[in-house]
Amino acid sequence: MSTRPPRRPDVTGLDLVGGPEPLTVTLAEHDPRWAEAFREHRARILAALAGQDVDVEHIGSTSVPGLAAKPVVDLVVVVDDVTAEEDYLDPLLAAGYVLRVREPGHRLVRTPERDVHVHVYGRGDRAVEEYLLLRDHLRRDESDRRLYESVKRDLVARRWEDTNDYADAKTEVITAIKERARAARGVRHVLFVCVRNGGKSQMAAGLARRAFAEAGLDVAVSSAGTAAGTTLNAQSVESLLEVGVDVTAEVPRQLTEDDVRSADLVVVLGAEAHVEPLGDTPVEVWETDEPSARGVEGLERMRLVRDDIAARITGLVERLRR
Questions:
Q1: Is 187:219 a contact under the CB 8 Å cutoff?
Q2: Which bin fits 18, alpha (ψ -120 to 50), beta or left (φ > 0)?
Q3: Cβ density class 111-138: b for 16+ within 10 Å, e for less
Q4: What is the rounded distance in angstroms from the CA atom of residue 140 to the CA atom of residue 136?
Q5: Do the Cβ atoms of 122 and 88 come closer than 8 Å?
Q6: What local confidence, expressed as pLDDT, does residue 160 receive?
Q7: Mean pLDDT, the chain, whole residue set
Q8: What is the pLDDT of residues 264-280, one digit of tens each?
Q9: Separation of first and last alpha carbons in the chain
Q10: Residue 4 pLDDT more than 70?
Q11: pLDDT recorded at residue 1
């Protein structure tokens, strides 16, 4: 996620503007005009958000040549802060889009004709990487492309009460395809977990980000807690600042099943937290040093924990470079 604190608390529930919309799904053979529509709307979005640091990507089935698709072009827009709607939502509405969905971490606007959907996420949101993982794999892998299309054709004959219901029905095959995509690409995302996500897992994530960058590894890093707290451990933060790693902007986050599924490697720090493996994602446990068992407390304890984690991160870097 973005290291900047959000401008305000995000929404906590789903606001489906206009309510559910019954949907009859139709599939069309891939149409080169979908790529043209993406380029047109990308230009419109960039003009509307001129001066802002945003990314715009073509996602969904219309972004995959050779794949039959529902003729609705999907784009994802990455902004600095999804809660700062005045920065992006007002300009997008002024550019002719209509708000359809407001939910935690995600906004959706679309054209009045409903033939273009624009998904907005904050920078660093795992959902964006998931969209791109699926897109890039389907572009490369003909077997999974055919599988995905066959599932969609099986579903297309049904009548759906809402677009979201149709999307949910594809979850199982999408999950399986993304697991194969992760296996094919190797480790690209490491998730560090402890209980509160205020100390050890934040330390590991901060140290790993620096170590991976220094080693030239294109590996994303995130952290979460099995029973996340609300604040960072002050001594953990201080011990990291001593070695030039700043995690002061991080916020403890509750672990979800989607976090585990989207990671290529889950590292659990200490014996207190427990994570059930999901899919093909490996889970390993680091039995980190506990100086308090030797009577060492306070900042000195945290320095020893930091150094133990740093040594393990060095070993992980070597593994990933092989």
A1: yes
A2: left
A3: beeeebbbbbbbbebbebebbebbbebb
A4: 6
A5: no
A6: 64
A7: 92
A8: 999 999 989 999 988 77
A9: 28
A10: no
A11: 47
Q: Which two tokens mark 220?
A: 């994303």
Residue labelled with tokens 């059930």: 276
Q: Which residue has the tokens 């047109």?
A: 40
Compute the average pLDDT of residues 143-147.
94
Q: Which amino acid is at 196?
A: R
Q: Both tokens of residue 25?
A: 């799904």
Phi, psi of 52 (to 5 degrees): -100, 150
